[in-house]
Q: What sequence folds into this?
């Protein structure tokens, strides 16, 4: 990253057809939509992009494709994390070779490494690949929590430039800013507390909600970055239903259903995930309406 990325960064979905195959034309339209809506950057093949069920070749090819489609209009951040350090190295090297602006690396899941293991994992990738790297802590998914002391150590590495904090802990997010904010950009990884974290010095969000409401998320973050938190809160109130209901089942199940209902993608998703349970359709639809998003008549 030649300059600091702030504001609303979308963790973009990976559109799929009904048979689970990738729908690249739909992906291209989403990228164009985000550029026009003021999204600050695009995270491709993150959790929301179903990285867990993409093959390694698909993963690398989609990063390359996103870089080509974005065409330097917005930065592209490639999800390159893994619970295998060797695999994380492979994905990060591939992202750098394909022109990604930065890499987002989740803490290794399932293995349950120690804090020293986490430090050595991220240090190994950072020292091996000359690309800006963003740490990603989401213990609710990984069963692995990177503590602030470990983040503080990693912040001293030249190309570790940011952290996505998805712990859902506002005081902890503020402490991250206080301890590491002179060396790392702190991003919210929980849409519902983005505004609260930005009030404490976070510089933006890597967002699921931005998939369906990119203009509003960009507007909310822009107000917060200028210190106009009252205006930011007014926008955020419109988004509150989405912040809650896009996680009513495992991400990205609800957001892909919403985008399909908006007519922007087909409803494809890969097993073991399935389409949103019908009992939640009204709640997600109501959240879209609260945000001022109208659904096509046929929906």
A:
């Amino acid at each position: 990253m030649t300059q600091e990325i702030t504001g609303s960064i979308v963790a973009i979905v990976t559109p799929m057809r009904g048979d689970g195959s990738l729908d690249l034309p739909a992906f291209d339209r989403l990228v164009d939509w985000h550029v026009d809506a003021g999204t600050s950057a695009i995270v491709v093949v993150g959790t929301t992009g179903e990285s867990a069920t993409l093959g390694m070749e698909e993963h690398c090819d989609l990063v390359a494709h996103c870089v080509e489609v974005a065409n330097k209009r917005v930065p592209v951040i490639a999800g390159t994390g893994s619970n295998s350090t060797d695999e994380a190295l492979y994905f990060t090297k591939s992202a750098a070779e394909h022109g990604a602006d930065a890499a987002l690396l989740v803490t290794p899941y399932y293995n349950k490494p120690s804090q020293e293991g986490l430090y050595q994992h991220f240090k190994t990738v950072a020292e091996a690949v000359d690309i800006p790297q963003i740490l990603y802590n989401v213990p609710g998914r990984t069963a692995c929590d990177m503590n602030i002391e470990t983040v503080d150590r990693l912040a001293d590495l030249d190309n570790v430039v940011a952290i996505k904090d998805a712990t859902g802990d506002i005081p902890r997010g503020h402490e991250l800013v206080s301890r590491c904010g002179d060396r790392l950009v702190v991003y919210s990884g929980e849409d519902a507390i983005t505004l609260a974290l930005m009030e404490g010095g976070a510089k933006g969000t890597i967002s699921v909600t931005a998939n369906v409401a990119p203009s509003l998320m960009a507007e909310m973050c822009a107000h917060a970055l200028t210190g106009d938190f009252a205006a930011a809160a007014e926008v955020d109130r419109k988004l509150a239903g989405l912040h809650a209901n896009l996680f009513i089942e495992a991400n990205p199940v609800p957001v892909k259903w919403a985008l399909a209902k908006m007519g922007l993608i087909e409803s494809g998703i890969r097993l073991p995930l399935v389409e949103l349970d019908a009992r939640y359709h009204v709640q997600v639809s109501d959240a879209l309406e609260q945000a001022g998003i109208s659904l096509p008549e046929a929906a």
About this structure: The mean pLDDT is 97. The chain has one domain: 7-227. The longest helix spans residues 229-245. Residues 32 and 70 are 8 Å apart (CA to CA).
